[in-house]
Amino acid sequence: MSSLALLAEIRQSSERLPYEVLKLAEPLLNNNQLTSSTEDAWLVYEQVFLAALDEGQIDLAKSLLHILRTRFPASQRVKRLYGLVNEAAGHPDESQNLYAEITSADPTNVLALKRVIALLKAQGKLALAANELVAYLDTHGNDFEAWLELSHLYLAHHMYRQAAFCLEEVILQQPANHYFHLCYAEINYSMGQWDIALKEYLRVVELSTDNVRGFYGIKVTADRIIEMLASGARAGKSRREPQALSGLENVPQVPVLEKLSLLATERLVAAYSANNAAAAPAKALEDWLKQ
């Protein structure tokens, strides 16, 4: 298979394989085999440009950008590439001005909008980045990756409820991805929403049957709920009135919780007992989990 065909395959797969791209493109560039008459030549130039940036070869990227700017002097797409070079060269202000020009001419330019947000994040301006993401999601609500990024920004500010809301949007769009359920479970555990956390941890192990973090989540959440129910019952008896416990509105009965805790313990021990060499740490783990 020719180098051009292999480069086309990498583009179609959407993989970022910069080292491989540069190795394939090197003879094409050195021997002037890549010309404007070659099919997809300009896509290859852009592909190699991005690979050069990924590998820190700024001079090569600039030479390729010059070729693209000469061919497409008014292209907003090429202007965005110029912004990427400025970012890589440590000139964020120039990049920001370029992205502002692009979004002013085309407010729907998703890639430029995302670069603005990435720049703000790289500069440590997390609050501004979150504000830009909120504005972006007002018109691009089906971008689950943007919701996930906004969730991370909220978590950086310990804004758990907002982060949980973002993950709900992610899960609506990607319901079969166990990792998103795991993140949602952990946020709800941090907020004391034990019933939701337990439900989501169970969903994690349903989708990923050997997920250690999922089983550990079930174990600690079930034990925590049992402990809180017991303390609530004692408080209710002493006051002769039932005590409402937040986050426990829709939890299973204690016998079910005990079975879930035991099952999670067994699965965790099994995960660490895959071979004889792990027998000692697995025994220590079992003793600790059953305390």
TrEMBL record:
SUPFAM superfamilies: TPR-like
A Pfam family that the UniProt record links to this protein: TPR_EMC2
Location in or out of the cell: Endoplasmic reticulum membrane
GO cellular component labels: EMC complex
InterPro entries referenced in this protein's UniProt entry, alphabetically: EMC2-like, TPR-like_helical_dom_sf, TPR_EMC2
Protein keywords: Endoplasmic reticulum, Membrane, Repeat, TPR repeat
Taxonomy, superkingdom: Eukaryota
Gene3D superfamilies xref list: Tetratricopeptide repeat domain (1.25.40.10)
Residue stretches making up the EMC2 TPR-like domain: 64-188
Membrane topology category: Peripheral membrane protein
Family assignment from sequence similarity: Belongs to the EMC2 family.
Function noted in UniProt: Part of the endoplasmic reticulum membrane protein complex (EMC) that enables the energy-independent insertion into endoplasmic reticulum membranes of newly synthesized membrane proteins.
Subunit structure: Component of the ER membrane protein complex (EMC).
Name of the protein in question: ER membrane protein complex subunit 2
Organism name: Coemansia interrupta
